[in-house]
Design goal:
The protein is of the alpha+beta class. It is built from 6 helices and 15 strands. 26% of the residues lie in helices and 30% in strands. A hairpin with a 2-residue loop joins strand 13 and strand 14. Helix 1 packs across helix 2, helix 3 packs antiparallel against helix 4 and helix 4 runs antiparallel to helix 5. The radius of gyration is 22 Å and the shape is elongated.
């Protein structure tokens, strides 16, 4: 129908009696289903408040009270019917695939507020309906995933096997209007960058050349782009897979660079 079922039981068949479940987030995150199926599921889950137990992202199902005894390995043991960092991660992965930067930022702010209210500690899980905390305090899953979600899904930072660095942000439009960026240090390299609607600028220092693949707010159109490195203009950046490809030369000291559309 308009969403993905939860699981297939060997004797009872399709199980889909617990409202919407994290299977929908997983399907969207892992690119399961055809475009129409994904669009239908996305319309159902994207603003579904039932996944947030007491405001905490993200719960297993929107009707956790409906699970029956036969669905548990140990009778009465409902500990996993909770909001947990692992489910939150899959939700944000799905939102990144659906280009929902606003939703990613909102969920990050929810989790950050929970940590702030508890001295920047998180619990292992939060039970429905009111988000009652459970499990050990200072549990690492929420803060660890918060860091991963900021880097991988919000800022779209990814190191590739060929040594290139990808920057494909999924951020709200307000980020592009105000400008945003970060400082990344890896191996013998350091990159400071800032992105905005006008393009990208920053500084790079490293013993070897570095390839950047950059996606801007509205994608890469046919207009020419200008790359400047320390005031010089090498060959214009090429476009591959909807990204600008910038080749930054080695530099023992931070070398300034910028890339923006050619102004008429």
């Amino acid at each position: 129908g308009d969403h993905f079922g939860e699981y297939i039981h060997p004797e009872r068949g399709l199980i889909d009696a617990h409202g919407l479940t994290d299977t929908n987030w997983a399907a969207l995150a892992a690119d399961v289903g055809d475009p129409d199926q994904q669009a239908s599921a996305w319309e159902r889950v994207r603003d579904e408040a039932g996944f947030y137990y007491g405001g905490v992202p993200t719960g297993i199902a929107t009707r956790p009270d409906s699970y029956e005894e036969w669905e548990f390995t140990h009778s009465g043991h409902r500990h996993d019917l909770a909001a947990m960092g692992r489910v939150w991660y899959v939700e944000c992965w799905a939102r990144a695939r659906m280009a929902d930067g606003k939703g990613i930022a909102a969920s990050l702010q929810r989790v950050a507020r929970i940590g702030e209210d508890n001295g920047y500690y998180w619990r292992e899980r939060y039970h429905p309906p009111d988000g009652t905390p459970a499990g050990p305090n200072t549990y690492c899953e929420y803060p660890a995933n918060l860091i991963r979600i900021v880097h991988r899904f919000l800022l779209g930072t990814q190191l590739e096997l060929d040594g290139s660095l990808i920057l494909k942000p999924n951020v709200p439009s307000s980020f592009w209007a105000a400008g945003f960026g970060q400082s990344i240090v890896w191996r013998d390299r350091k990159l400071d960058y800032r992105m905005a609607r006008s393009g990208i600028e920053g500084q790079y220092a490293g013993k070897s050349a570095q390839r950047l693949r950059v996606r801007l707010e509205r994608g890469i159109d046919s207009k020419p782009y200008v790359l400047a490195i320390e005031g010089r203009q090498p060959a214009p950046p090429r476009v591959e897979g909807g990204c600008l490809v910038l080749d930054l030369p080695p530099s023992t000291e931070s070398a300034a660079f910028s890339c923006a559309p050619l102004r008429p």
